[in-house]
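For the sake of clarity, the format in which proteins appear in this thesis is described at this point. Each number in the token line that follows is a code from a learned vocabulary of backbone shapes. One such record is shown here in full, so that the layout can be seen directly:
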Amino acid sequence: MSRLAAADGGVYPGGMHSPRIPGPRSLRFASATTGCVVALMLAGCSSNDEPVKITPAQSASAMQAGAAAKAAAAMSGNASTARPDAGANPHAGGMGGAMAGSAPKAGIALQYAVPEGWIVQIPTSSMRKAQFQLPREADDPEDAALILYYFGGEGGSKDANLERWAGQFVQPDGRSSHDVLVTTTRTVNDMAVTEASISGTFDAELMPGQGDRVRLENWGMLAAIIETPAGPYYAKLTGPAPTVSRWEASFRQWISSLKPASG
């Protein structure tokens, strides 16, 4: 498993193995607790195409099931499902998350449809509100990964994140990645969305401020900042550039499906 898959440093090449989802599903996630996140991922295996509403009791039960699965995987040596949680906020500009004593916001519930071919995974840290594995192209070394984050309304400004993401890439022809980064804005179900895309050589720290760097050639990223009344959500699809390009259309389709959950 790649080192990037075990850290919340803003890039995730995938490599985890989970059951495939045969078709689009409408899912909801509750972002107030990790338990709700685990419940969402387990609910994604339902045969019902209707949106799933997670109750506190379901969340607690799913959390226990998820913890048991992780423990069993750890004992069997399956690193792909026994990955460590990360505590630092990769969008906090090196400050390690919200200020001491500040209370995180409760995220607004979102509903979305999972595109055909995506593999739903149980999020491996409390910052991840949804996690997907996107199968690789034939000649690529690994799968791509899509993570949806929520940091309790924190995470820095939109421009600061775009600047940082561009700075994680180096262009083979010597151009500045800040000039290569493509950004667009649109409104999705009354939510402002900023999308960004870039490819090149990824060259950055695994976690901000820790000094452990990684370099990956021919790497790609698609990202979106989704502004909700409870603060921004961040979606990042990263992996080998051909694989990221393969899933670009379905990534944008997924972003278009995001909407506040009703009821």
Observations:
- The first helix runs from residue 34 to 43.
- Residues 3-81+106-260 form a domain with the Protein Transport Mog1p; Chain A fold (CATH 3.40.1000.10).
- The chain has one domain: 3-81+106-260.
- The radius of gyration is 17 Å.
